Protein 1
Amino acid sequence: MDSAFVIEKFILVAVIFGISLVIAMYSTYAERKVAAYLQDRLGPDRAGPFGILQPLADGVKMFMKEEIIPTSSNRFLFIAGPGLALLCACIGTAVIPWGSPVLIAGKTIPLQVSDINVGVLYIFGVVSLGVYGVMIGGWASNNKYSLLSAIRAASQNISYEIAMGLSIIALLLMTNTLSLKEIVDQQHGWRWNVLYQPLGFLIFMVCSFAETNRAPFDLPECETELIGGYHTEYSSMKLGFYLFAEYINMFVSSAVMAALYWGGYNYPGMDSMAVWLGPTWAPLFGTAVFFGKICAFIFFFMWVRWTIPRFRYDQLMNLGWKGLIPLAIANIIITGVVIAIIEKF
Amino acid sequence: MESLSNKKKVLEQKPLSFMERMYLPAIAKGMGITISHLFKKEATIRYPEVEREFSTNFRGMHSLKRDENGKERCTACGLCALSCPAEAITMIAAERKPEEKDLYREEKYAATYEINMLRCIFCGLCEEACPKEAIYLDGPIVPADYLRKDFIYGKDKLVEAPLEMKK
């Protein structure tokens, strides 16, 4: 391993980390603006032009708030909870392919931190680890509401992970690989997986809403029943970490959805663009397209949040176990049969 | 029990149909409604920069009026203070000196006149009680401030600008 490789990866990691933090930061602003415009309001517009400095003001507020650790809480786990939540949210970006290799200064640099051959499984592993942050925080608070919320989050994530995994299996039957990079490369031009797997995508998307604890599946932080949910006892930047982790999760699952189903950095007419822009700028343009898709998904997350009321807990479980899992299994069977027929003839 | 007004409606709770159980048509409809609001004009008025137009009988900050010669109308009779249900008004009367003839209309005038804007409920009873037409609530909204003492408005803030300055 030469040092140039280490430096190159280090720069890539730093850039991706920075970008995902900035996007998460501005997601909080975008969420408030989207909410406001969907409700015929203006939203934050005081800090800077159009309120674009609002995330900074919020950050400063979070840091300045008094930090309270309840005396009856488990101190170590209470502090570990938000840290774990943020960590698990951030490491998901490592296997996402952000673009095809770029030629910079005579060197071809892949725009992916690591192309492991089980990328999809890695994403699933990281996402299911994320619930530990919520679980530990809720338990360590020594508050019945927090614990209830943590249990809700855990059971919700487990239920929806099954349907999510099953919906992915149908995709893997088609692509024959677990590497995200290869899955994206197979969708060259217009051959996006969503066109072949619309039902699979729908199931996957509903499950990502549940996995990120977003409305209409935001039962773990359901104020009317649970005060603040698992972060009831949290204050200051530890609360900020939990809220931030939610937005980073949203960013990562948007990226995964865009990469798995919506072609990632592929777009129609990319071959002629590659000739026109050259080996340096064409991949970067593809990356910009990818980020456009991610932003569209983030907007979709917010749009759904301000439209659909929260599900009741029994409805949530019914939808997961009796609706999505049978659908996902049916999707696998249909996909398998169709692939078998195509291969036969 | 039999309904007397005939307005009672008994709602049946039917089990959801297949389309309703799918949620998706209803969700799509709802999403359509919310996205249509994205393109509607927002109802917000950016207050400090833009002000809403008041109705003609809006009661805002008080002003102490002058007569056509620019003399203060108030004679410190105290009827406004007496009529005030919130006891927001206090004043100290003084006798006019001969050289102050151009400043005050009558021989008695208010040396200090204070309204506590935190107590005032903007009911307009002072306006009605005044026999000299000296006080009107025709000003703007009373602005916010940081200290309680700054909400006690004296004559410097209440009395109308002199005639020359107005022109």
Protein 2
Amino acid sequence: MESILISLSGGLLQALEPLNLFMIILGCTVGLFVGAMPGLGSVNGVAILLPITFLVPPTAAIIFLAAVYYGAMYGGAISSITLGIPGASTAVATVFDGRPLAMSGKADQALTAAAIASFIGGTISVILFTLFAPPLAEFALKFGPPEEFALMVLAFATFIGLGGDDIPKTMFSILIGLVLATVGLDIISGKPRLIFFDVPGFLHGINFLVLAIGIYGIGEMLWTLETTGGKVIVHKVKLTWSGFMTNVRSVRVYIKSTTLGSILGYFVGTLPAAGATPASLMSYGLAKTFSKDPDSFGKGNIAGVAAPEAANNAASTGSMLPMITLGIPGSPTTAILLGGMIIWGLRPGPLLFSENPDFVWGLIGSLYVANLFTVLINLAFIPVFVRVLTLPFTVLAPIIFVLCIVGGFAPTQTMHDVWLMLLFGIVGYLMRKLNYPVAPAVLAIVLGPLAERSLRQSLLSSQGDVLIFVERPISAMCIAIAVALMLYPLFLAWRKRRRSGSTNGGPEGSDA
Amino acid sequence: MRKLRNFFAGTALALGAFSISSAGLVEKAAADWAPRKPVEFIIMAGTGGGADQIARLLQGLIEQKNLSPRPFIPINKPGGSGAEALLYLKGKAGDDHTVLVTLNSFYTTPIIQTDLGVDISTFTPIGRMALDTFLLWVHADRTDISDLDSYVATVKAAGKDWKVGGTGSGQEDSILTAMMEAEFDYEVTYIPFPGGGTVAKNLIGNHIDSTVNNPAEQNEFYRAGQSKPLVQFTPERMAAYPDIPTAMELGHDIVYFMQRSINGPPGMSAEAQAWYIDLFKTLFESEEWQTFCVEDGLTCDEWVAGNDLAAFHSEQGMRHRELIESVGASAITGE
């Protein structure tokens, strides 16, 4: 414990050196805007910034890239909330409630909640990182294919809370997502699957961000145009200091789901297979499942913004762990970070902690500092971002449209994805009109490939014996929690019916 | 502050040098080609594996040494044992801003997946950066396995319960696994993972029993005492592993290399090809690259480029066809 504190203070001092501090502030600011621009949030942004890092010493360079990465996690929420376009895949869950809040004139509340939740998520996760990095690296190693699959089942279980009351429509939405997730080359045999009309673009599968931008960006834009006829629909937001303080104080409303999301996000982030996107979606599902008012989710519940934002920031810190100790990057951005490390002769692996403690602790120290600066910079820019919403929708709609096209093109740089995104936009609009929940489809397409791969790897190694999932302790635990989660809404409904059935109310769930 | 001043001085010097050299280059400049937009640096494998590490190191060196006016952007296309990357490159015919860093699945995937319709001889050869090597690895805790003989005995006793991790059917580790199955007359269960880094991690976590990782993928775990190599599949012992015997020494004719080469799409312009050959030759000869090769057990003695590389590809393609026929495609795909 003492040695951790000494190393940490050394790392903090290192992060506060003038050059490193400057790189942190620069990185956070750049990252915030890179994250806020749909399509720029991808690899390209950081790749273009890589040359800057050759002007400074290695530790400062890595700190800069980490700060960009960190800032981008915050920034992703901004376009999700103000424009309804997920700036990055990690910010898709933020759209679910962030957009409805913005449409009802509460964009400042949503943005403040996103920033504060991100800060809490970042802080909790970096503290966990400081205290438990080596034991957690051990734990991550225990996660084999069966554990990964069990975790995915757990993630699917959090869906139950996501679809509203219409179970058949939710199931339909999940199944559509799962079918779309299987498009492309089979992961085990390499054979092509579901290549519609032999269009070669389908070989690389359906990019999840393309689907999300289409459904939320384009679909919502069409829906809003139809329902409002292009009039200004967002009331002018009054920005005052006391209003801001009220927003800050409202943190107690969502502190529970934020804390839960932070811890969940950190653990999911440390697993090399998962990453920040599943973490944020799972966190949203959990927040809804355990909310007193689950029906308000998807219609503008502040906890629905805070939970995924806390989780994706926590996961981005968590994913530094497999990068440092195993050399496995959890995302394209950490892959570039990894490249930077290799150039400077820093070999990621189990020995990096003991052989290059200055670098590792400098990086950890910089995360503390970056977290603080990003939340301050982010809060300072909220009035600017909110102003965007006071534009008439007839002006805003073309901007959204262009940003969606750019965002659809950027990840793979093929026109195929742009056409696909427009198609999903129309589908999203129709689903909205027919009252189908789209969130479960989005979740299924993210988790489907991960679940399929780990399922097939597990069954290969057990020679087809499904007991492998309950014989191993970690996976059995995940499956048990998943079953409990799936039954929880049923239990609530049963208790509600029982209560309303008996005149004076029965014993409080005593026989649960 | 001193740093900043150095930077400005450096910039001024560089600008000066540039204006002097550009004066001498005026006549040549018209014929020269250089990228006009970011170059897509396609990796036909997942993140964290050997090919990925190489691409990211090269990308960094290109930036650091300022060798290209536009950045190189690494993009992983690991699907279907590299089929995704090969099809992508095929679709980029005539494009001067896409290059591919290969594994041996460059040869094997088109042979095994016959319906892919990819002919690698149409691709534009640029240069061979290295020959990568393979070793047989088990977890350091396997005290019952100390050499090749005890390994073979243990695998035979375990039969199909023995799990070998790899990066996909048709990838070089699956071929090497099939070659070993044929040589030692046993059968194992082969489990594919997305990338060599993940394979290495699953060995350390005891989710699989053995791997045939490249040195780069296991070296850090080996140094940390978490895994151990049993045998190397090179003609002679590598400098990095002086105490580990080769399969040849033990009387088993298993030698297997993997080429790490750079290739363009079909129909790349001759000017662009010449520019890329120059670029990667500079990188190949750089001190950083040669150091990387030594540390990672890569063989980087000979620079092979252009038509020589095409000849090498055609010879390797034949050899892989024979290998696959001798062990049977089904032994590799597991069907």
